[in-house]
User: Fold Sulfhydryl oxidase from Orbilia ellipsospora.
Amino acid sequence: MTSKDSESADRPSETTVLPQPPAHKGTITKSGIILGPDGKPCRSCNSYRDMANMSALLTGGKAKSTALSKVTSPPPSERTDCPPDVEQLGRSTWTLLHSLSATYPESPTPSQKSDMKSFLSILSRVYPCWVCAEDFSSWMKQPSNSPQLDNQEDFGRWMCKAHNEVNKKLGKPEFDCNFWKERWKDGWKDGRCD
Ligand SMILES: Cc1cc2nc3c(=O)[nH]c(=O)nc-3n(C[C@H](O)[C@H](O)[C@H](O)COP(=O)(O)OP(=O)(O)OC[C@H]3O[C@@H](n4cnc5c(N)ncnc54)[C@H](O)[C@@H]3O)c2cc1C
Assistant:
């Protein structure tokens, strides 16, 4: 066995990585606050803003010392090191995901394709916002949405389509995927990223 053979033997083949349900689940309260598996408000599933609004509604504007109010106040403006809410986590994750597509090979090897397919499958199970993970996982499972990994352009456009799916769900404007490379790889033609 060559070192290349043993390397590929250690890797999961494309067919062995089956989509699984997200690893951690919780529930959604009637008031719309997403709880984690521990029954507490899930910080990475809600925005600080939504949790603060909900807390104000529940307490009639007065803060109470409950599990909810402990995570519902927006982070004090003087702090920049608070745990991420669903929006901060999302922005950071999209930055990673689009940057992965921007540096994906033009002609990937079978094992590079397999690695990326595994990564996306695992991400859709372990993403800390469990509702986001569930939706992302079921979207990817549809045959027309399976990751396009034959080359960098296909992957960049697939990632843009995946992100637009979430944008649509959240009522945000869709991004024009013709510009994915300017946004995430080359910089805009106006030179302001140089
Ligand atoms: C896999 C995944 C699933 C998510 N699911 C949910 C969810 O179910 N509920 C929820 O509340 N939040 C979810 N989020 C978070 C959500 O997508 C946003 O990240 C968050 O709301 C912050 O949005 P934003 O407006 O700051 O910009 P983001 O949507 O985070 O985008 C960051 C930047 O990417 C660029 N961009 C936008 N769209 C595209 C695109 N299609 N292609 C290329 N570049 C683009 C823009 O320049 C934008 O400023 C999810 C995030 C991820 C990674």
